């Protein structure tokens, strides 16, 4: 199962409109023709879709409109959107924003789920780059409009960026503050000027992915206050009925101005998209069995292996799908809160990590459905392996005095256990490492060098992950470590994580696959103590900051690969995380009301934006209800 994901999807919830948020490399602007109106930009190489493309390859343009889909809040959303919501503004730090609000807002550009790092025209008909590569001119589509029929103007775009810069969620505002200027040039043109020393097209993607708000609608309203009325939008859906903490409906805009643009043909076919919120996973599963939830992505291996045997499955009314997942798996694991003194020594962290028996957990809890994660870059060429190569050493050698000698050894890989759940060799090795760190056992308790007992509270807001923790906790306690598992309600959990009030908690990092400043939100010193930051472990290491600079400033794919491998190698050697597991497929169960295109995009199954309700089952989905 997955606790929550940090990365593209979370950032999507803050400021982009498509399933794969567009992150581009530094050299992108250097590659783009100057003063030429372009329909899109690509991260590496050429755009897949040419200016005259009729539609995306993974849609069915003849898909009928109608019906509805009901799903539950997915686990990747828990970081920014836990299993409740109390505001309709998901772009500020205050409150729990409703998931799905990005469906209601247009953005200047958008991306696809069959390419990585390409963006195409949306509210901006074209983009042009000036000769000094610092001015980006977005020309708005003349037909772009809000749901009340008023046009989207450059003033709306400028107001949106300036407002988000001042009042928006810090993880978005941080980037917008780097923009030198946003100006309305004329009735259709927005100019974004980036600083000379920025040298990174991340700023372009932030500008291109910002939701466009109506300046007129927000006049007299506080942007950073809790919002209980639906804001005026301009996307394919508008907010329908909702009940805070219970459900929210989105209704398709039948006269959506961009519906026949190539990027949208065959997409967003449901009349209604509904998210149901459940505080308990078991209750959510029962709701699916009863047909109140119609599509469900399953993250729990036991459920998938054992619990999908109810009558609707056996008689074919519910379909089970295993969809290949070609996304890089990222790194899922327990994050140590290194802001706490007891976790500052990497040897203590390594010893703790050795006591997680993946082999036993996979066999006894997860039905051997998963593979062990060892890296932040599983399933990619950026994963560090073996000894550092020449390209990595060119980055690491100047930092040798600042790094652990282990960085220059074989890339750290967690040892394979005997699968017993109580591997004595692992326990002995862990004990040796604790002693090297100055720890000792007295009276059955593991004591830190300070004499304080080593205690660990694993924080969660859902007890479905309890068996995985308990197996780990049992091994920790056998060595005298006072480990406990605490489940709190969603709001308290979110507040504690936002304030870094935890020992260890589970997260999943989805890494940018092209030079992107966003990676500093994960591992950069500046983000280590920023409330709401994605730097869960509190990584604050000047040497890592320098490697992050290399990642962000890479000018070629080769430079980017070497920098990421160096970063991965350091993070693993320092044991900021205890890696868990991943799987190369996605488990989806759906009531047999739907069809989907023959081609599934590799980086997202496209359920909400490419599936449709079969005409003979429209009434069964409660389209009018």
CATH superfamily of the domain at 10-237: Periplasmic binding protein-like II
Number of helices: 19
Strand order of the largest sheet: 1-21-15-22
Largest sheet: 4 strands, mixed
User: How many β-strands, per DSSP?
Assistant: 26
Q: Which CATH architecture of the domain at 10-237 is right?
A: 3-Layer(aba) Sandwich
Global Rg: 24 Å
In short:
Helix content is about 25%, strand content about 20%.
Summarize the structure in words.
The protein is an alpha+beta fold. Among the domains are: 10-237, Periplasmic binding protein-like II (D-Maltodextrin-Binding Protein, domain 2), CATH 3.40.190.10; 331-422 and 497-580, Dipeptide-binding Protein, domain 3. Helices cover 26% and strands 18% of the residues. It has 19 helices and 26 strands. The strands form nine sheets. Strands 1-21-15-22 form a four-stranded mixed sheet. A four-stranded mixed sheet has the order 3-12-11-10, with no helix packed on it. Strand 8 (181-184) and strand 9 form a beta hairpin. Helix 17 runs antiparallel to helix 18 (557-574). The longest helix is centred in the C-terminal third of the chain and has 18 residues, at 557-574. Residues 1-27 and 75-81 have low confidence and may be disordered.
Present the secondary structure layout.
Blueprint: E1 5-6, H1 8-15, H2 28-31, E2 40-42, E3 68-72, E4 109-111, E5 118-121, E6 124-129, E7 135-140, H3 154-167, H4 170-176, E8 181-184, E9 189-193, H5 202-209, H6 215-218, E10 237-243, E11 247-252, E12 272-276, H7 281-289, E13 295-298, H8 301-307, H9 311-314, E14 318-324, E15 331-336, H10 346-354, H11 358-364, E16 371-372, H12 390-396, H13 424-436, E17 440-442, E18 445-447, E19 455-460, H14 466-478, E20 482-487, H15 490-498, E21 504-509, H16 520-523, H17 542-553, H18 557-574, E22 577-579, E23 581-582, E24 585-591, E25 594-595, H19 607-610, E26 612-613
Parallel strand pairs: 1-21, 3-12, 19-20
Antiparallel strand pairs: 2-5, 4-5, 6-7, 7-9, 8-9, 10-11, 11-12, 13-24, 14-24, 15-21, 15-22, 16-23, 17-18, 25-26
